[in-house]
Amino acid sequence: MADEKKNKIKVTLTEEVATGVYANNVIINFNNSEFMLDFALFQPQNGTNKVQTRVIMHPHNIRALMNSLDKTLKMHENNTNNVSNISNLNNTIQ
């Protein structure tokens, strides 16, 4: 229990960051030392894909992100039983 308290990190957000942005598309590029994730809002009515924010990460952090997303999605599925099959995503993730 004492170890759990020692490992906690306080996270703070500015009001702007806490509000968040909506993205329904992510464009992923990489080179030898980093991955670039462009989170975008695709608007099919006019064919635009506007990048809302860009996140650049080291490959090791991408692996950690993937593991964390997998674990969290499984917890979500266990709680809600309401996740669309990935084949229905219509290639929004490039």
Write the layout of secondary structure elements.
Layout: H1 2-6, H2 15-19, E1 25-30, E2 35-43, E3 48-57, H3 59-80
Antiparallel strand pairs: 1-2, 2-3
Report on the architecture of this protein:
With 94 residues, the chain is an alpha+beta fold. The chain has one domain (20-88). The protein has helices at residues 2-6, 15-19, 59-80; strands at residues 25-30, 35-43, 48-57. A three-stranded antiparallel beta sheet has the order 1-2-3. Strand 2 (35-43) and strand 3 form a beta hairpin. It is extended and about 50 Å long. The model has no long low-confidence stretch (mean pLDDT 86).
In short:
The protein is of the alpha+beta class. Helix content is 34%, strand content 27%.
What is the distance, rounded to the nearest whole angstrom, between the alpha carbons of the first and last residues?
Answer: 42 Å
Rg, Å, rounded: 17 Å
Could you give a short account of the major beta sheet?
Answer: 3 strands, antiparallel
Give the strand order of the largest sheet, numbering strands 1, 2, ... along the chain: 1-2-3
Number of helices: 3
Strand content: 25-35%
For this structure, the quaternary state is: single chain
Give me the secondary-structure category: alpha+beta
